[in-house]
Design a protein that fits this description.
210 residues; 9 helices
Length: 210
Amino acid sequence: MTHLDRIRAMPCVVCAALRQPQTTRTHAHHPRTGQGMAQKAPDHCAIPVCEEHHTGRRGIHGDRSAWNMARLDEMQALGLTIRRLTRDIPDPVEEVQGEPRRDRQNRRMWAALGDISRQVEWPVDGELQRLSPEDWKHVLSAGLKRHQRVAKGVDGGFVILGQRTSRMKVAEFAELLTLIDAFGAQHGVNWSDPQWISMMAEQAKLPEAA
């Protein structure tokens, strides 16, 4: 069973968000966020979307009204997909030479966030900017949750209360690393940490779910 077969066997993320029954078959949608007009994301970034919400009039290739109603964009849908895929598979980061698994996850996360910080610009206050690794941690960890907490700023404006990685369980941290990898693949990031590359390669070899 290939990765795309697994995606097509999953329920539609938009139908689930809208809490409505799915009436058409699931397609494997390849996000184009961050890609060129004629390019699409790699297969491991595919999202399960029913035919209606994929190529239908209200779908992602239509007027996107169903996606807007569900309050979903492609990155949020990818985050939901990753959570589903990683829910029942073993953590790819194992203990090596007595180093705690969580410490290795944290070290690799910061190496990857540094790569993204140096290579990707992101819209902030209406302008494309280079964000710090700390800023990218907040952006990407927030991507694991569809509903974000918003607080009023002390001097006006609003503050998004992101998810603290220090409070994440090992499995949740693994989901974040997978999301970072998918985001990097979408935006053509070249990873500088060989251990990060080997870890994601090992995860790609995990047995496919039946």
